Amino acid sequence: MHKVLALIMICTCIAVNAQEAFIKKYSGAYTVIVAGYNGGDSEAFALRPDGSAVWVEGYKHNGKIETRQKNGTWTAKEGVITISIQGNTGIIVEEYKLKNGTFRSGDRYLKKNP
Fold first, then answer.
1. Which of 20, 31, 76, 106 is most exposed, with the fewest beta carbons within 10 Å of its own?
2. CATH homologous superfamily for 2-112?
3. Nearest CA to 41 among 61, 56, 57, 63?
4. pLDDT digits over 51-60, tens only?
């Protein structure tokens, strides 16, 4: 029984350390690109090393550029970023998978800002 418990604890520690490594690796500011869209609105994510996330939208309103932002969290594992943002009606979860060097979710992809 003690060996099983110890093995579970070791596996949990390895998984947590791996997740922390990918959080550190993938953290940063990203612009959201939507394939085929070239309108004036824009979206971005700030994925922080502490696991917090901020979504920012820029849009035109009465001829002026306005922004709004929402807060949330994010997790990472090898080749996957999962972002959870508090929307107006509940939590919005987006999962981006690494494909050909780019994190993609349907027609949306993340472009890491320098």
1. 106
2. NlpE, N-terminal domain (2.40.128.300)
3. 57
4. 999 999 998 8
Among left, alpha and beta (phi > 0; psi -120 to 50; other), residue 52 is beta
Is the pLDDT higher at 41 or at 49? 49
Q: Is 5 helix (H, G, I), strand (E, B) or coil?
A: helix
Nearest partner of 67 among 54, 77, 58, 55, judged by Cα: 58
Residues 71 and 85 sit within 8 Å (Cβ to Cβ): yes
Name the nearest CA neighbour of 48 among 9, 68, 74: 74
CA-CA-CA-CA torsion sign (38, 62, 85, 112): positive
Question: What is d(CA 12, CA 108) in angstroms, rounded to the nearest whole number?
Answer: 32
CA-to-CA distance for 11 and 3, rounded, in angstroms?
12
